[in-house]
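Re-run with default settings, no changes from the original entry. Doing this only to confirm the output is reproducible before filing.
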Amino acid sequence: MEEFAPTGCQKTDMHVHFLDPYRHRQSLVHQLDGRVKFILTVAFILTCSLTPVSAWAVYILLLALILSIEILSTLGVGYVQKRAILAAPFALAALPLIFTVDGTKLFSFPLGAWTLTASIEGLERFVSIALKSWLSAQAAVALAAATPFPELLHAMRAVGIPRLLVAMFGLTWRYIFILADEALRLMRARAARSGVSSSTSASTSTRTEGGGILWRAQVAGGMAGSLFLRGFERSDRIYTAMLSRGYDGEVRLMPVPPLNAANKAVLSAGLLLLGVLLLFGILFWG
């Protein structure tokens, strides 16, 4: 069983909790200060969001930029893409734009008493939103995989994010591992109590582990309720323990050293490049 590491681990992938997205590598991206990576990621996402619709050249340049970061981080393009694809279902929320934006008719088809008409402008807007979501998801995945979470919390406080919000992020992150630990315990308990065939040969067994679909649904519902109660009770105990140790809502951190010249240069160059790309898109497609 993998080691339980709620605060993240900076050794190797073999010592990282399966829920922790951080992957330790010896790369230039990993060696950058967390504040630089956080600011540049937020700036990249803002650039994607503010880039005008149909600015395809800018989208291609942003894609080339994020792919270069993925290669430099040695995380692998496939690793980031498999996790960034999770943003695809959310982009489908913009699908009605194809039929609701007025413009040049592309095609139409009847749907009951209505006739849906797709426009080229609506399709361009949908594709633009999908590309923005995909690029932003890649940036977020790369940031999480190349930066330990405690370092991200340091970066958030350093750039002026309210302490209460940062504390909520930190506690939520740690409670995710607690809930995962409780869920694994419940699953092991269910497996230990599930009925299995008494036959000594698995190939000749006529019974399956557990019961039917209805039985499994009842067990899953009971497990969900038990997980909620156990997680609530355990979080209350943890919070009481934190209060007894002087917790007052502020996570005490070591003083953050100033950025060195290399990190300042990377930050300035990155912000300048993103600003030029955004300005280029606004001037020619805005």
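Residues 1-15, 195-202 have pLDDT under 50 and may be disordered. The longest strand covers residues 105-111.
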